[in-house]
């Protein structure tokens, strides 16, 4: 290859690089990226909470989530739990204790199951609130628990799981009433 030919090739390569750079600069000039003036979606404003609701919580309260929860969805979401738990009446203990009727069951009360001290010393019953916290973050709720499960971070999914757990009982525990619900009636649905 003589030097003339080499120069031609080098020139072509350089030319191509310049051309690509040029396109980049040119398209940047056309498509100038401006940050959006407003967010693409609006987060629910705090004042959207129904009047009279306790201290406008930024998250949807658990009773409201439970009112919308679906045990069928929960059954699917509870598949990972089934690796360690049974849910049916008379179900055996596996890596974890059987969970039939666990809602309102005293904490760490499955006869014959070797619970961790973290759960044995907890006391009280598995009400919806306690279960919600435990499933969200087992170690955060009971530091030292043997339950090797990372936690379900989505509150709506947890509510579905709770609805499923609730359905697995002879007499499903009553759902907690929303704070502002009129006695015996449905909680008024706040418009989002
Ligand atoms: C890797 C196995 C494993 C998985 C997965 C798992 N658990 Fe557990 N679970 C355990 C063990 C072990 C315990 C006993 C914990 C202790 O003694 O500290 C437990 C305890 C519990 C308890 C307390 C029961 C009682 O009698 O006090 C509940 C409720 C529970 N699990 C629900 C769930 C749910 C719901 C899921 C799925 C979202 C789940 N677990 C996933 C192993 C597991």
Which properties best describe this structure?
single chain; mainly alpha; Cytochrome Bc1 Complex, Chain D, domain 2; 0% strand; elongated; binds heme C
Compounds present?
Answer: heme C
Total discrete domains: 2
CATH class of the largest domain equals Mainly Alpha
Q: How many β-strands, per DSSP?
A: 0
Mean pLDDT: 86
Strand and helix order: HHHHHHH
Proportion in helices: 25-40%
Q: What does the radius of gyration come to? A: 29 Å
Q: Counting H and I runs of at least 4 residues, what is the number of helices?
A: 7
| CATH-defined topology of the largest domain | Cytochrome Bc1 Complex, Chain D, domain 2
Strand content: under 5%
**CATH 4th-level superfamily of the largest domain:** Cytochrome c-like domain
Low-confidence runs: none
Per the principal axes of the C-alpha atoms, what is the gross shape?
elongated
Could you walk me through the main structural features you see in this protein, from its secondary elements to its overall organization?
By secondary structure, the chain is mostly helical. It folds into 2 domains: 1-30; 60-167, Orthogonal Bundle (Cytochrome Bc1 Complex, Chain D, domain 2). The protein contains 7 helices and no strands. Helix 2 packs across helix 7 and helix 5 crosses helix 7 (155-167). The protein is elongated. The mean pLDDT is 86. The site of heme C has 29 residues, from helix 4 and helix 5.
